[in-house]
TrEMBL record:
Belongs to the FAD-binding monooxygenase family. This is Cyclohexanone monooxygenase/phenylacetone monooxygenase. Its cofactor is FAD. It comes from Prauserella rugosa. GO terms for molecular function: oxidoreductase activity, acting on paired donors, with incorporation or reduction of molecular oxygen, NAD(P)H as one donor, and incorporation of one atom of oxygen. Keywords: FAD, Flavoprotein, Monooxygenase, NADP, Oxidoreductase.
Amino acid sequence: MSAARKLPTELDVVVVGAGFSGLYMLYKLRRLNMTVKVVEAGSDIGGTWFWNRYPGARCDVESMHYSYSFDPELEQEWEWTEKYPSQPEILSYIHHVADRHDLRRDVVLDTTVTSAHYDDDSATWTVTTDDGEQVRARYCIMAVGCLSVPKKPEVPGLERFRGDWYHTCDWPESGVDFTGQRVAVIGTGSSGIQAIPIIAKQAAELTVFQRTPNFSLPTFNGPIDQDLVADIKSRYREIREESRRSGFGVAIEPPTRSALEVDPEERLRSYEERWQRGNLTGVLQAYTDLLADERANDTAAEFVRGKIREIVDDPETAEKLCPKGYAFGTKRPCLDTGYYETFNNDHVQLVDLRETPLVEITERGVRTSAGEYEVDSLVLATGFDAMTGALLNIDIRGRQGRTLKDKWSDGPALYLGLNAAGFPNMFTITGPGSPSVLSNMIVSIEQHVEWLSDLLEYMRRNELRVVEATETAEKEWTDHVREVGDMTLYPKTDSWYMGANVPGKPRLLMAYLGGVGPYWEKCQQVAADGYEGFALQ
Ligand code: FAD
Ligand code: N01
């Protein structure tokens, strides 16, 4: 007897992914009385916050702002405990929201979507899962995450390694105790920088393999300030609105002056005061031109390098940790708790892979051009195939069977980061070409979900069944995304924003830098003009 099906054969909408995006999409579609299922590869909901359980995993947008705004009672009731929420706290928040709105009953877990094919005649998508089930749906919404496909280091030998190895984004649920072990960490991005201080506290010896040093600022994390909570809760609606209209999805006072027009002492005072705030936007938002002018940027970069030299006792190690040769902010900067201080411990050593490149993983550890480092456990904090990885892992075929992979061979193209010409009725949430990873993502997720739910309601009200970006609208938007990016320093840096961390990936800035507020206005205007740039039938 065959096992019971997990999915019905027909639905209005299939949503792929049960993180913040997929769950909110489900909530909105239910309110439209649409039949919908969310298909999730993981064994539970939560997305990023389900998978990334490495020690120290934490958000770097403050708790009061990294949360849904769609449920005003929830935002009054929910109590965050720390300034920056930890992974377990965010996951329990997601579980709470799912239970509060009874979302789980429409989520199908442990199931990977392997293909989605569009049929021109019926104007439906056939979605296939890894257990061979197929479901036909009018709409397919990809809530697959921008940072959900792990990337391993491009060196041979991992399968030979006799110890245990872990990727930060696929961490065992039971945790890992490194007590008494010799541990290696490869990678010093946000994940590595959060995990390293905690692993160092457990391990007998820790070796950190660094290819590119990162700019990292202290969180000064701690129990949440209750006066601040009361103040925010008393005007949450207003703050949420300001966030939606802001540059990066967090309501802050925008800078008004160039870094080059103030005298060096005043500049230093301003950077110091902002450093003490313990957030990402402080120093980077001090002046208008920090992300656009190299000389301006270097004033902030040198300030951070000065801090590293102050914190790290050994001058040689400090110099290795100092980021040089790229602009501060153009690789995602990190927030840490005691990262640079960790290198003042005798049992922690830093290996600079620019001096002695990684050669291979061996049975016993890690080999660089300088020799072999024997370890018991290996932690890969080597990041993600970001933005496009999860979409291109699925065999997506649009009109006339054209694959998304083929369409995107020179890089992703989507109108408004929402829909690709030739792929009708398929949408991405926080897709390439939207502010996405260059914003407080919850704000961007809510904006996309609400815009899509309005569109689907409009389609139904007007008895329409196919919506698709025109080639012209897609091209104009994609050119605009590039032009705005080219006005900044981002394209000059090799980063995952540019696809530069994955060999062979097209190199282009995948997120839209025009700002969350202006982007939101553009989307509103498109909808108000009868979905300008989309062909509807
Ligand atoms: P995800 O949470 O990534 O969920 C996507 C889900 O889709 C995953 O569960 C995945 O398993 C599933 N999926 C993918 N492909 C398939 C498939 N083919 N079939 C079935 N299921 C599939 N953002 C911020 O704004 N601020 C932060 O401080 C911040 N911190 C972060 C820290 C870490 C460690 C990471 C990795 C990301 C962080 N982010 C942060 C970005 C974070 O990804 C978003 O804020 C947000 O959680 C994304 O939600 P999502 O639902 O869009 O995607
Ligand atoms: O990944 P990364 P991540 N040999 O790509 C190195 C979010 N996030 O998981 O820079 C040697 O940033 C690589 O070196 P290089 C946030 O958006 C947020 O840390 O390519 N080294 C780099 O040092 C973040 O930006 C938080 O030269 C190799 C590291 O591995 C995004 O997720 C926390 C290598 C990868 O860094 C990704 O962060 C965690 C190789 N072959 C994540 N390949 C917050 O705090 C890669 N590296 C909110």
